[in-house]
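Hey,
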Amino acid sequence: MHRAAPTRRLVLRLLAGAALIPVRAVPQEAPRDQGIGGTGARPDDIPGEGDRGIGGTGVIGTIRRFGSIVVNDLRIAYPDDVNVRIDGVPARAADLRVGHVVHVVAHADAGGLATRRIDVTREVVGPVESVRGGNLMVLGQRIAAAGIAGRWAVGDRVAVSGLRRPDGVVVASLIERQADGPARVAGPVRRDRDGHLVIGHLRLAGADT
């Protein structure tokens, strides 16, 4: 009996069931911890089924293994010349690491998923300011690093990949040494008790003027 090939509409239905974030998803009001390695979207955030011409499905999550890349248990293929950017800087597929948090737009391809661009965003890049057990402070950001390979000392310059909990703590999935390049931090901006704008415990100098 001849078996019909999956249609693009069917593939998009399956993707919606896998808790992916459509490209036009409405931003959440506040950061949510939906599970490390998750997409950051709740099942009820997913729009109604059907092909609405979005041209691909956005996936945000942590690389768990290679052989293509596996993000949120989805295997996403990519060509040898895939466009890779790490913190906005051009890179190569060979620079990808298990534990990187990536943003990709995946398209149905030969019964699976494929992408031509992979964006890696580290949550914070900067000097280690304190080390206490399995916790670090990096550029004013509290890092939960229990179980992460490596030994760190005050003054080490690192790049931390991970997902941020609602309390502001970054649960690290990868910590890499970063010898050079600018310091950076990504996260929600709030006001502290004195009314200053901060990310974590990092005051944003000049942002209040």
